[in-house]
Specification:
α3 runs parallel beside α5. It contains seven helices and two strands. Helices cover 61% and strands 5% of the residues. It has a two-stranded antiparallel sheet with strand order 1-2.
């Protein structure tokens, strides 16, 4: 769990170091009509993390149980790959991202709350908690936290692609 939380911090810091200094116009501009802007990507990441916190907290209120063995063998690192495109569930599609500073504050707040939930629950309890992921299926709470980090890494790569297309 310590490594997972370290990865969360590392990629989060890298993403924020890339996004924070951007001018608002670049932050909000789409490289193409059918692609998300950096603002939309950051908002999506926050929406996903908020959803994970809510659903994981609810799962922690249930009786402990582990996902099936085969589900425990699926590496959450596959989420970081940009080769496979996955359509986001409607609830986490960024329709109207907030202003940059507000979005970054909300995103940092969500991360702090996720880490607090992990600290309060503990690794053993997270291992015996199941979370229903729309793409990965039923995974453990630990795998869910790992997913958040790899999901963020995936979208960090996307942000870098957007910025390259915008000439940054």
């Amino acid at each position: 769990m310590k490594n997972i939380l370290h990865r969360l911090d590392t990629i989060h810091d890298r993403l924020l170091a890339t996004v924070t200094p951007l001018e608002v116009e670049i932050y909000q501009r789409r490289a193409a009509e059918d692609e998300w802007s950096v603002a939309e990507i950051v908002h999506h990441l926050c929406l996903v993390e908020e959803r994970v916190i809510k659903d994981l907290d609810r799962a922690l209120q249930q009786e402990p149980r582990q996902p099936a063995l085969l589900r425990r063998l699926i590496p959450t690192s596959i989420v970081a790959s940009r080769v496979l495109r996955v359509k986001s569930p409607k609830a986490v599609v960024p329709t109207s991202p907030p202003e940059k500073e507000v979005a970054i504050d909300e995103y940092n707040n969500a991360r702090d709350r996720l880490k607090d939930l992990c600290a309060r629950s503990g690794e053993q309890r997270l291992r015996s908690t199941t979370f229903k992921h729309p793409f990965l299926g039923e995974i453990s709470g630990v795998a869910t936290v790992s997913f958040v980090g790899y999901h963020e890494k995936r979208h960090y790569k996307q942000i870098c692609e957007v910025l390259r297309k915008l000439g940054r």
